[in-house]
Predict the 3D structure of the following.
Amino acid sequence: MVDKKLSGAGLRGQSAGETHLCTVGKSGTGLTYCGYDISELAEHACFEEVAWLLFHGELPTIEELTGFRQLLKDYRRLPDALKRCLEELPADTHPMDVMRTGCSVLGNLEPEADFTQQHQVANRLIGALPSILLYWYRFSHDGARIETETDEDSVAGHFLTLLHGASPSDVHQRCLDVSLILYAEHEFNASTFTARVCASTLSDMHSCITGAIGSLRGPLHGGANEAAMAMIEQFSSPEQAVAAVRDKLARKDKIMGFGHAVYRESDPRNVIIKAWSKKLSQDADNAQLYAVSEAVENVMWEEKKLFANADFFHASAYNFMGIPTPLFTPIFVCSRVAGWAAHVMEQRGNNRIIRPSADYVGYEARAFIPVEQR
């Protein structure tokens, strides 16, 4: 047996290429998309503007935005063959598996013939992924074969309408819209790097996005907001939450939703979604979730100097909008597909296959032993 241990460094802190799409954690803080600060985008833009920005490098004009929104609306319809496939998936299927399967099946039904179609495929996925998720969810949980085309102008409004069967309030629609902006892009994270590695082989867009979804499915990448929700919903008061978290820390339990692989001082997305969670809590039946979340945030900083990342207050914000916890991470997919697709396009634009080397730490060279002598 080889007793050497792999370093497990995970390439953290090492540059793996160049991008014009995003900056993350420069000087410990900060997040920009194509030069625009995330706080300005979250305050003034809509998700559709951000997706256009990532695809084209510039914000759209009014005419371009209007046309883009209509195009995404036209792409919400699902092929009957895809619907039949989704109906075969059990109700206890992991929703991220539904997203992965739906993307792959769509790639069979509507293959990317060549790279001149990449914008078309990317736009189709932005339009179709919420429909894929919620067609399966409503059928498997309610027995309803819903129409996946709505009159909502935004991806956020479309998602909430399919989920609840009615148009959302303006505040809920805008909160989810901001959430999609915050999650749209984040440089060379694990799922994006997966997409770029796949793209570097000159594979098709659906394969790249399917692989990215598979990487996001892992609990060390996506799912922190779901884990945060599972924790905070146990507590009925901030005091109970503080005591329980301190006990968890004493046992060295991991508290999800805190710290970040790149940010060192704070996550610039947290302050934005935290404010939205507070706003939504004011009209919520379970308003204590915000107070509980804030108490946990405070004790984590006091005890461990760990800050809340983007995922933590997303848990309460999504809950206030009536979004079931298992759908939290799939919303991430509905947003990040814009960033993934933009990175695929960027990789294709100046491609060289991504093929790193490895440091061999196994056995030294040795002679083969015939089977009868072993």
